[in-house]
Amino acid sequence: MSLDISYVRSQFPALEDGFAYFDNAGGSLVLRNVAARISEYLLTTSVQTGASYEHSQRATSRLMEARGKIAKLLGAQRAEEIVLGPSTTVLAQSLARAMENSLQPGDEIIVTDFDHESNIGPWRALEKRGIVIKEWSIDRESYEIDLDELDCLMTERTRLVAVTHASNILGTINPIKEIARRVHEHGAEIVVDAVAYAPHRAVNVTDLDVDYYIFSFYKTYGPHFAVMYGKYEKLLELDGLYHYFYGREKVPMKLEPGNANYELAWGSAGIVDYMDALGGETGDRTAIDLAFDRIAAHETLLSERLLAYLRDRNDVTIVGRRDSETHRRVPTISFKVDGRDSAEIVRSTEKDRIGIRFGDFHSRRLIERLGLAEGSGVVRVSMVHYNTSEEVDRLIESLDRALA
Question: Which of 68, 84, 116, 21 lies closest to 331, judged by CA?
């Protein structure tokens, strides 16, 4: 069965205004049930957890339930592997801080030049402690990565590889399972930024065999909140970031200073209920996987519709893969127009009530590596499953006028 787009759009109240939202990689719309859960929590359960009285016990139970649901969404084996925080940027910085005392001068960390800065900057900052930072680069012509180059970068001193699951510029899906296998063969750990991947495809961290995996809910149909998965035994090894009496064994709370945001955790768990509904309401991973299969099929159609238009223009350079192959790209599509400023093109579409974006999207190293910083960076159209073919056609008509 294909995606029920009428049902999907009914779950996102913001769509009722008729605006075409194509800046979803910057932040998706919020589900109706997520907003309702946050409101209901604040109005009925807004007490501190951990006390013995009835209402506190209910708050504690709800936070545990939310962790369990989020663990199911990620394919984690236990709720304690779910660390909650305000954003991917903050969680990556927290992870770096929690790891730094276990690193020695001369230890090596590999970062990329094709990631969002959230998964580069925290690791580069460790250079001040004598950590050697190596850079894995993307090919400027093909926009592809070379796994053999990664193998060459790794040595017996490599402790960590930081890489993105999907580029928020190129839309390319990287082979994380294979990358994790190679990293582990060298005795190192892997941390994955999945912000640009999680809204589009099912995540199974157990199958991927990653050590750490981070993404933001506000780009995955939820509130401004985020999650970091960590293998339980890896989390136990990390330094705590909370009070001194939170021992190493206090996972994941030792990594959530000041406590997790209870209402946002409860609200974010509503994303899981929504995916369950899209996948047949079986209440298990089967429904989540089926939901994302339907999402992927729909998004592939949207991608191909726009990419076909861009491929047919001789004044447009697609930045990334030119095809819409489901397993190789997500519907985040960037391009440059010969002789035109990207900001000018974006602003010309706004009068048609269409929201796209220009710039480097905090992947500045990638944009600079590709030589695309001039002219306001790239134009980016980032679609998700609540977008429609009709909206893509509106965008194409608007781009035709803008580029005429």
Answer: 21
CA 208 – CA 175 distance, rounded (Å): 9
- Measured from the Cβ of residue 152, the count of other Cβ atoms closer than 10 Å reads 11
Triad 35, 37, 38: Cα angle to 5°: 65
Beta-bridge mates of residue 112: 136
Range of the domain at 345: 5-30+286-403
Residue type, 302: L
Express each pLDDT in 354-391 by its tens digit: 999 999 999 999 999 999 999 999 999 999 999 999 99
Strands (E), 263-323: 316-319
Task: Compute how many other C-beta atoms are within 10 angstroms of the C-beta atom of residue 182.
Answer: 17
Same domain, 132 and 219: yes
User: Is the residue at 215 inside a domain?
Assistant: yes
CATH code of the domain in which 372 resides: 3.90.1150.10
271-279 contacts at long range (C-beta below 8 A, 24 or more positions apart): 271/31, 271/34, 271/73, 271/217, 271/220, 271/221, 271/222, 272/69, 272/70, 272/72, 272/73, 273/33, 273/69, 274/11, 274/31, 274/33, 274/34, 274/221, 275/73, 277/7, 278/3, 278/4, 278/7, 278/8
Residue-wise pLDDT for 227-241, tens only, equals 999 999 999 999 999
Pair (176, 131) in one structural domain:
yes
Q: How many domains does the chain have?
A: 2
Residue 210 is part of a domain; what is its CATH number? 3.40.640.10
Place of tokens 């035109």: 340
- Kindly state whether residues 314 and 270 are assigned to the same domain: no
Rounded to whole angstroms, the Cα distance separating 129 from 63 reads 37
Q: Model pTM greater than 0.85?
A: yes
Pair (121, 227) in one structural domain = yes
Amino acid at 141: E
Taking alpha carbons only, the member of 198, 269, 277 closest to residue 1 is 277
Indicate the residue type of 71: A
SS3 state at 326: coil
pLDDT given for residue 330 in this prediction: 98
54-74 vs 285-311: helix axis angle to the nearest 10?
A: 50
Q: Please report whether residue 257 resides in a domain.
A: yes
